Structure formats: structure tokens, C-alpha cells
Amino acid sequence: MKLSGKVNWLLALVVCVLTAASYAQWSNPADDVPAYHPSAPLKVSALPHILTSAQLTGSNSLYPWQLHVYQKAAQVSSVIYQLPCNCRCDRALGHTSLRSCFETVHGAQCDVCAAEAFYASEKTKAGWTPAQIRAGIARREYEKIDLMKQ
Predict the structure, then answer these.
(1) In 55-76, which positions are buried (b, 16+ CB within 10 angstroms) versus exposed (e)?
(2) Sign of the Cα pseudo-torsion (60, 120, 98, 32, in order)
(3) 25, 59, 69, 94: most buried by Cβ count inside 10 Å?
């Protein structure tokens, strides 16, 4: 009787895997946009705090850009709330936008997050809207940012 239960469980697992694989063949990777919020938060003060440079220690503060990016992120907090993060930390860490990366030490550890935040800061100063910055991120324009020069 126990063997039959194991066989049924194994059969159910195989069916689940095959079903997932069949859906994957119809998905379009170009339509797969990382998580972000389509509009500004209602109250920025209600969001988790972006870490300060004093909270970054050890390997999270080896390079000047690691501290500087958190300052920039705090300055454009509501903008980066509306931006996706192409390192796909939404999948791995459950992040809901680029802003989430700077609520933890992740932004100091990931060159993609950092470059996107510097890019967002630069484009916000230039008068770009979050939608325009999202489009630039989709075009991977942030990849031109040299972190060592920040």
C-alpha cells in the first residue's frame, strides 16, 4: 500500500513538471519584465528605509561607489521604486523594484543594481520621467555606467 502512494506522488510530480514545461515553451522572454511599481508610492515615509553609508561595512564598503550609490538611491527613492532591476532579484530575493535593493546590502553587492541606480539618478537630474528611465533600462543604457568613476 505504501508503494502505491509513492507511485501516485511520483506520477503527480511528473505531471506538474510536464505542465510547467509546456507553459514555458509559449512564454516570450522579451515580455518578461522584472518587478516594479507603475506609479510613485503614496507615502515614501511608509516604505522601508534605504540603508545609510554608516550601515554598510566590510565588503559592502570597499569601493567609494558602494557608499555613493546609496546616497543617490535615497535622493531618487520614489523614482527607483518605479523601476525594475535587471539582475532579477525579484525572482531570487523577492524584491518588488530597484528600490528594494537599497533597503538591504544587495545594492552594494550587485553591479547591475548599482549601475541602474546611478543611471536613474543621472536621468532624473536631466528631467526624465520614471517611464522614460524604465525604457532606458530596458535598452540596457545603464551598462555604460562605470562604477569606478562614480
Answers:
(1) ebeeebbeeebbbbbbebbbeb
(2) negative
(3) 69
Measured CA to CA, the distance from residue 41 to residue 43 in angstroms comes to: 5
Question: Which residue's C-alpha cell is 535587471?
Answer: 86
Where in the chain are the domains?
A: 33-149
Residue owning grid cell 538591504? 104
> Grid coordinates standing for 119?
543611471
